[in-house]
Amino acid sequence: MTNNPATGVLDRDGLSALIEVLAAQGRTVIGPTVRDGAIVLAEIGSADDLPFGWGSEVEAGRYRLVPRADGAVFAHTAGPQSWKTFLHPQREKLWSAERTPDGALSVTEDDPEQTSYAFLGVRPCDLRAITIQDRVLAGGRYPDRGYRERRTGAFLIAAECTEPGATCFCVSMGGGPAVDGSGFDLALTEVLDQGGHRFLVRVGSEAGRDALDGVPHAPADAETEYAARAAVDAARDRMGRAMPPVDLRTLMGESLEADRWDDVAARCLTCGNCTMVCPTCFCTTTEEVTDLTGDHAERWLRWDSCFDVAFSHLHGGPVRASARSRYRQWLTHKLSTWYEQFGSSGCVGCGRCVTWCPVGIDITEEAAALHDERAGRLRHEKQKETQR
Amino acid sequence: MSVPTLAVFKLASCDGCQLTLLDCEDELLTLAGEVRIAHFLEASSAVTPGPYDLALVEGSVTTPADAERVREIRAQSRHLVTIGACATAGGIQALRNFADVEEFTRAVYARPDYIDVLATSTPVSDHVDVDFELRGCPIDRKQLLEVITAYLAGRKPDIPDHSVCFACKRRGTVCVTVAHGTPCLGPVTHAGCGAICPAYGRGCYGCFGPSGSPNLRALIPLLHRDGMDDRAVERLLRTFNAPAFDKEVRS
């Protein structure tokens, strides 16, 4: 909370006005809203669509929407979606081809005008996840053009975390409930005390300043700043879970033959939910569509998952046919080989994979078990060494 | 190349899957231009004798006559695709596989000796080679079109065998098990329906049969947790794809 000076305080009407300003810029405003017993991300028409007075109680494999007497709007943890639903949609057309009557083919690259988004309520963990997906999808020699355009055009309103859930572990992944540095246009911190329900606002970009200038707001006051800082600091100590404090990269690399993979494979449904809810999982497959006449063809990108047997299908069959090999692929990639590929961990500690796994497989528990197994193995080897 | 011939056959079934072909209203005229419909009794009584290029077979094998007939169909068909839970898994009528059929016939029919049935209802692939199995009760219209289109284009159909969860997450459905504690077979069920049931707040009941890599034994404790006793779990698994799920329970 130190890098950007606090620049204002919004009340609920101010938040409402901010949504109107962004919508008036032609943006599609996406934010949290209550649907089907969860807080999901969807298009927001006004502040009335936001989950005022709703929170969530989560555990491994369990999510419950719960009413909150305090009327808070950002006091919930990660729902079943992340912002990748919008930046990296589950299905996207790449090109289409037509066969003309003389037999020639004409290929047309799909280049639609991308939606200009405003994301309201991006958590610090998800802000990091977006940065990670930027590196994966928009970095390197072959950027995903659609992603890059949607991302460049997106206006990000971060919401600092004041209410971590039981499956949250961002602090142990090097993050935290505070929004630090850059990567946002505006950052909000929700404050609920005798001074009223309000949001401390910090500006992170020129576009953010322009938007804030367009809405009624009070100057930042010391009391609100203090309360905001206290709420975020308290959240840091209330993470429900933690990754074991070890070098996960080395741990994964040295655990490829661990027995624990058999244990987790016996519980894993290989249903793919963890990868679908993960804000950094990016894998896709291409779908070739033809019509009955064969004169029209399309290529689409669609979300895929390393838990799909067909995902590793090469000539002769799948490389990772067993559940053991697929879970191991997911975890070792996320926590270890991601560094080699993209220069960071692939996990931000948002806890979605823990909450939304139907059988409640807990990535932190699996990492801890792998660590214990490795420690036991090393102890055993050392004992053998000394006995010699 | 002459226009390929299409034949539709039925064994023990309700006709719902072949009806799916007639349900392709927008594409029917185009389809009729790309194939010659040579045998499709639900659409026309005009029948052309085989052999056929593409045969769609609905229904399971429940009588000695069916078993003989499906061999004849195979012999007349260059590419044989079975459609629906009956043809691919035995269907609801495969519940007989867990019971005594003779006892049923004695109880139901005045002259049980007139009844000539097999003790089991089995998928077509138990009797003849099948080129592709399209799952579902009933099958999905778009998937049927994909199978036919892929055949016409000479490519493999794009019919993923991953779980229904993939479809729920793609369409943004909130997980009914995690968020509501509703028993759901989605994590072990073959995708293809578009995850219709969870989108309306109810659990998947597995009408597409097991996915390509189901771990049913890991799911059963969840069904128990969410209020199902052993009998209820058995009933949930024993519907349209009972033998297929039964095999998974035992694996």
TrEMBL record, chain A:
<feature type="domain" description="4Fe-4S ferredoxin-type">
    <location>
        <begin position="338"/>
        <end position="366"/>
    </location>
</feature>
<keyword id="KW-0479">Metal-binding</keyword>
<dbReference type="Pfam" id="PF17179">
    <property type="entry name" value="Fer4_22"/>
</dbReference>
<dbReference type="InterPro" id="IPR009051">
    <property type="entry name" value="Helical_ferredxn"/>
</dbReference>
<dbReference type="InterPro" id="IPR017896">
    <property type="entry name" value="4Fe4S_Fe-S-bd"/>
</dbReference>
<keyword id="KW-0411">Iron-sulfur</keyword>
<feature type="domain" description="4Fe-4S ferredoxin-type">
    <location>
        <begin position="257"/>
        <end position="288"/>
    </location>
</feature>
<keyword id="KW-0408">Iron</keyword>
<protein>
    <submittedName>
        <fullName>4Fe-4S dicluster domain-containing protein</fullName>
    </submittedName>
</protein>
<dbReference type="InterPro" id="IPR017900">
    <property type="entry name" value="4Fe4S_Fe_S_CS"/>
</dbReference>
Automatic annotation (TrEMBL), chain B:
<keyword id="KW-0560">Oxidoreductase</keyword>
<dbReference type="InterPro" id="IPR051349">
    <property type="entry name" value="Hydrogenase_assoc-protein"/>
</dbReference>
<dbReference type="InterPro" id="IPR006137">
    <property type="entry name" value="NADH_UbQ_OxRdtase-like_20kDa"/>
</dbReference>
<protein>
    <submittedName>
        <fullName>Oxidoreductase</fullName>
    </submittedName>
</protein>
<dbReference type="InterPro" id="IPR037024">
    <property type="entry name" value="NiFe_Hase_small_N_sf"/>
</dbReference>
<feature type="domain" description="NADH:ubiquinone oxidoreductase-like 20kDa subunit">
    <location>
        <begin position="14"/>
        <end position="150"/>
    </location>
</feature>
<dbReference type="Pfam" id="PF01058">
    <property type="entry name" value="Oxidored_q6"/>
</dbReference>
